[in-house]
Amino acid sequence: MPLFRPAPKRQHSFLQDGVTSNGNGSNSSLIVGVDNGSQKSECAPGTTSPNRRTSTSDPAWTESLDHAMASLVLGSDNDAEACFVMGQNFLFGLNAAPVDERKAINFLKRAAFQVDGHVLAQAVLGFCYEFGLGVEADSGFAESLYQSAAMKGDGLAGARLSFLRRYGRPYVKINRVEAEEWIKRVNEMGAEAVKWLDAAANCFNSPDPAVSKAFAAANYALGVCYHDGIGVSQDGSKAVFYYKRAATGGEPRGKGILAYCYGEGFGVDKDEEFAFLLYYDAANEGELVSMYNLAHCYEEGIGVEKDLDEAVRWYKKSASLGSCYAQNSLGFMYEEGVGVDRDEQKAVYWYKLSAEQGYPWAQCNLGFCLQNGLGVDENEEMGSYWYQKAAIQGHSRAQHNLGHAYQYGVGVEKDEAMAVEWYRRSSSSGNAFALHSLGYCYQNGIGCEVDEEKAAKLYRESALYGHSPAQLSLGCCFRNGIGVEVNERQAFKWIRLSAKGGNDLAQNTLGHLYEDGIGIAKDIKKAVYWYRESADQGNAWAMTNLALVYLEGVPGVKRRVKESLRLLRAAAEKDHTRAQTKLAHCLMNGIGCTVDKEEAFEWYSQAAEGGSVAAVFALGQCYENGDGCSVDLHKAIEFYTRAAVCGDEKASDKLISLVANPSVLDEVFQNGYIAPAA
């Protein structure tokens, strides 16, 4: 069976700041307008109304501050807790401390890098490096800090590490298997895991740009937790609430993710035009994911007029800054020639950059290019390697293609049981290609026991997704009683659906159903129509069938001998043995053409090698009569014998007549030829 090309070739949906769903900005006044000016005092359902600024008279904060200051005044600047509290105060401007992110970083470093390191300080320091608070943003270093703290049980670190592993960032490789493990750990901790984020997001709220960016970043990160259900129950309205606060606080990621929500109708009424404006604003502030999503809007005409030049420009900008999503999409643009001149080598270049960052779609696309020699030297082993990389991360199309590789031994050692296992994994996520391939295995006992009923069920499931090969397979099951009762009407129904979906095999089969009146009344004109549709796609069977209709002439269809010969020759050149045999017959007898026995002999020879019994018999005649070759009775008997063994009665009759000839009989025994069918 063929390896079906995954389509679309890339993650083609929007990213919610990297948060993938099966799916820039405005000016700041538009952002503020989202909440109708209520940002300063509104609070998320189920939360305490936030204070505009924590008072220095607040006993809890005052006690913390007093302890920290006392520790430092007394010279105990190695007190990790005291350093952490001071760092937090300077980060958020709490307890009468001014916002001073650089001082905050100094104190957090002291706390984090003590001998016994303050675990939460490590996590908060990672947060600062991730969002560029008091330091230059460095996702790679943030990842290291998160990992250290998460391994010690810190919830904030675990939540953010799961995000980075799941969606990646420049210098942070995607690993969705590891991401799921961290999500599981965080969810086991429950609300305790996001306690710091909740406190940071709700202790203060103001759109005043003088306020620390940490509040906006915390609101964004807490929104992500509600969006994905990490440490808290998934809640779209709460996610949007926090995203709005992040956006009004000037966090570009907040604008970008809010745009996603409006574009997809997640937690808010869908508004693609407003989503585009938010993406545009965030992208122009340098927000990487919004650049990608903005490009996608331009490419598909979502919320804005379609503009491929702008799409390519933004994809390039995002890709050059390290976005694996944009790199993959740019690879697709070059592979297909969308908005750019087609260039498969550039496509592979961008796919590889993205794949090396762990993005499963790019890994799958790169694997396909390597296995098929698109823009790179063919390398089946490396193709399967990249399929496996993506498959392990749960990419269903890569899982299917890896199964195909194991089924046929493409780049890996053939292992049909392993093929079935990968087909099962892929089909569990509803992949129509895998459901069909798994059905094929059950029908034919490939890597599993034959189970025709299960095969038919899998074909049906795939067919209901609109997968045309499965629709054809299901139709054939109904026609031949494989796993289901014979039902010619159902056979016609499913084969017709497949044919309408553009499947050339189904189109040819549908032509046959119309020609012979199977499951539908005979209609030669419709038969010709569907044969033509299939033939135009290069289907050799359809070319031959159409040629025979034109050659023989039937009521309602005009005889077209020249077109028939053209079709027969086209099919013959595709190694179609029936077409080769029929073309040879026409050439031998001058049907619609000048007699050419030598060429006829050549086509009979090719057809015989392909297994055509009629061609084998014809070659016996050629050698007997010297048509297109020298007379050679020994050869004639050899070919008649081959045809007779296959059940050709005319060949048996020929053998009898030749053996009955005394002059021939002497030569037969002299040369050891015995006609077993005589």
UniProtKB/TrEMBL annotation:
It comes from Chytriomyces confervae. Residues 1-59 are annotated as: Disordered. Pfam families: Sel1 (PF08238). It comes from the Eukaryota. Residues 36-59 have a biased composition (Polar residues). This is Uncharacterized protein. Transmembrane segments: none annotated. Belongs to the sel-1 family.
